Amino acid sequence: MASHHPHHGYTCITCNVVFAEAELQRAHHKTDWHRYNLKRKVAELPPVTAEGFRERVLTQREAQAAGGEDKQPRLCKICRKQFVSLRSYENHLGSKRHRENEKTAKPPDVEVEADLSELRNKKNLQLSTKQVKEVESGDKKDKEEEEEEEEASVEEKKG
């Protein structure tokens, strides 16, 4: 990620910048700008310059101050991802990965039913033999108690 070139200094290939000292390079790796470019790199997007990053931060702050940024979290049911802003959600909808997932997505009804079945299966698997026996014996006790209550009720009506 970072290297030293004797004639050029210390570089960050993620952000395409060169530093004269190693300490500056290490400090750079802790910045929001560098982290932002790392995320862009993972998304196969080109890095933004320091000035471009500052402009984006200012634009975002202005939008938040004006109430323009929608704070409602968005959920992509197809990719099963949550997004904190409308802009990130819209960017996701236009992404290559989302479009690929859309093509292979199951119809909503089938997907919901599959999710429910999966949850039921997991829950059932989590029950140990001991728990199953406890549940079964508890059911028997409940039935016995109900029968006793019915008998008592019948006896009261007779008497």
Considering the chains and any ligands shown, give keywords for the structure.
3-stranded antiparallel sheet, mainly alpha, 159 residues
Task: Summarize the model shown.
The protein is mainly alpha-helical and 159 residues long.
Strand order of the largest sheet: 1-2-3
Residue runs with pLDDT of under 50 for 5 or more positions? none
The arrangement of helices and strands along the chain is: EEEHHHEEHHHH
Helix/strand/pairing category: mainly alpha
Query: What share of residues are in beta strands?
Result: 5-15%
Q: In which range does the helix fraction lie?
A: 55-70%
Record field, number of beta strands:
5
Termini Cα gap = 90 Å
Radius of gyration: 30 Å
Total helices: the number is 7
**Average pLDDT, to the nearest integer?**
75
Would you mind describing this structure in some detail?
By secondary structure, the chain is mainly alpha-helical. 63% of the residues lie in helices and 11% in strands. Strands 1-2-3 form a 3-stranded antiparallel sheet. The longest helix is centred in the C-terminal third of the chain and has 30 residues. The termini are far apart. 4% of the residues are buried. The model has no long low-confidence stretch (mean pLDDT 75).
